[in-house]
Every structure is written in C-alpha cells, then in structure tokens.
Amino acid sequence: MPHHVVLAKIVVVLLLFGAGWLLRVRRILDDAALPTLSRLVVDVSFPALVLVQLPRTVSPEILRTAWIVPAAGVVIIGGGMVLGRVLSRSATGAFLIGLPNWIFLPLLIGQGLYGAAGVRTVLLFNAGAQIILWTLGVATVGGRANPAALLRNPGLVATGVGLTLALIAPEVGELARGGGGAGAAALGGRAVIEALDLLGSITVPLSVLVTGAQLADARGGGAPGELGRVLLGRLLVVPALVAAGLAGVAAVGIPVGRADRVLLLVIAAMPVALSGSLFAQRYGGDTALAARGGLVSTLLSLITVPALVWALS
C-alpha cells in the first residue's frame, strides 16, 4: 500500500484536531460542553461501537484458529500500561503509553496490505483490547481500582454482552454483517444494529474534535519531562518489546501468520489513541497531558508510521 495514503489519513486527523481547537477558541465549545461530549463518547458512542463490532468480527471458529490475535490485544495494551507504570511518573502517562490508536489507522493499513484478512486481524485485536481498556485501562487512568464501579462501566458491559452474543448467538453476528434473512425478527434486529452502528460511527471524529478543543486549554501536563516519557514509551519502547516478543513466539513454534505478525507490530507502533484525553477527562486523569500526548505522537507518526509501513511492505 502506498505509504502516502497513510500519511494522508494522519493529516485528516490533524485537520480535525485543528477544527476542535478553533471551536474552543471561538467558544463554540464552552466549558460545559467538553465534559458532556467526553461522557457521550466514553459512556455511549464507544460502547455502541463495541456492541456492534464484536458480534460482527468474532465467532467460536475464528477464536479457535486465530486466538493469538485477541490474546495479543490483551498482552500488548495491558503490558504497555504495566510498563508505563515504570517509565512514567503519573497514572495518565502509564495509560497513554499502553494505549495505541489500534483501530482507526491500523484498519486502513491492514486493508491496504492484506485486504479482508488484514481488516479481520485488526478487528480481532480489538476484541482483546476492549477487555483490557475497560478494566485495567480505566483503573490505570483513574489511578485506582474500584471493582464495583468497573462492573457498572458501560464499556465493560458492552464488551461482555458483545462477546457473549458473538459466542452463543451467531445469528446476531450474521445480522451485523448484513445477512440473516428477511423476516420481521431479522429486519428488527438489523434496525437495532444499524442504529447502534450509526451511533458508534461518531466516536472517532468526536474524539478528535474534543481532544483538539482540550488542547486550547492545555497548560503544562504531568511532571517535568512526562510528555517525553510518554512519547518514548509509546513510539519506541513498546514497539521494540512487541517485536522481540513476536520473535520469541516464533522461536518456540507458536504459529503466527505474516499478516498477523506485521499488523500486531504496526498497532504497537501507533500514536496515542484518539480517545485517550476523553478517558482522562471522564475518569479524573491529566487531560492536558493526554491531549498533548495525542497531538504530538500523531505529529511524530507522520514520519514513523509511513516509514514502518514502507519497510514492512
């Protein structure tokens, strides 16, 4: 896939960052709007996205043959947050080090390199990533673990329901993929899924707009040098460790296809997830650090991601 296509996608993200910043400067997004929009994404649109994507992409058969990909989602993101505790001086810094943009850009790259197989790999990774995001991730960015609160978390509930439907009700997955017949029940089910899908589709653009708006207010953010530690961990240390881990997996004879191996490394090298600052605001983290980390890591990825895609392709 031409790496200039990836470059263009990153530029789209940066343009949305700029639009959000301008909306905040012009006070179209005021002080009351940002927490409300953050909660809308984290508690409503993101769970809706999860609830549709998991039945659409996961099945018992797929898990039997490609179990290592969702398992890698748990290990890469969870391990990144544990590593972040070592590298950073704040809970938010640890969260950002472990939280790559694992859907938006990787879907483009996966489709360009490997077609439908690449898309499936990214979405299977998403299944494991959602589990760790709504458990260890929420506990990390909030600086504490509250099991009762986690169990009431809309994202975790959506992840549990989505995985359950995927594994015990394959007809739901068929409906989510556009099949399932033409009866009244099928038509009603598809209507519900389409509504959830439409609601989930606002997650990425709204996340970037709100992060851009938060940048207009960002002052400081974390201990001295904290942004540098986040960038070092997210863009260099985590990818290097994942590359070493994949080499170790191959050495012990666990089969990992080339597409899976390449895309797992690409995901590990992604900039901070676009939703990072929204989670920070929702759960009491350092919003300024998260917004700056998202912007600067995305700027740096103008160099690192196209270079990586060029090298791997």
Characteristic key phrases:
79% helix, Na+/H+ antiporter like fold, 313 residues
Question: What is the structure about, briefly put?
Answer:
The chain has a single domain (3-312), classed as Up-down Bundle (Na+/H+ antiporter like fold), CATH 1.20.1530. The longest helix is centred in the middle third of the chain and has 26 residues, at 116-141.
Number of strands: 0
Low-pLDDT stretches: none
The fraction of residues in strands falls at under 5%
* N-to-C CA distance: 7 Å
CATH topology: Na+/H+ antiporter like fold
Number of structural domains = 1
Question: Averaging pLDDT over every residue, what do you get?
Answer: 86
Relative helix content? over 70%
Secondary-structure-based class equals mainly alpha
Oligomer: single chain
How many strands, what sense, and barrel or not for the largest sheet?
Answer: none
CA-based shape: globular
Task: Give an overview of the whole structure.
By secondary structure, the protein is mostly helical. The chain has one domain (3-312): Na+/H+ antiporter like fold (Up-down Bundle), CATH 1.20.1530. 79% of the residues lie in helices and 0% in strands. It is built from 16 helices and no strands. It is globular and about 55 Å long. The N and C termini lie close together (7 Å).
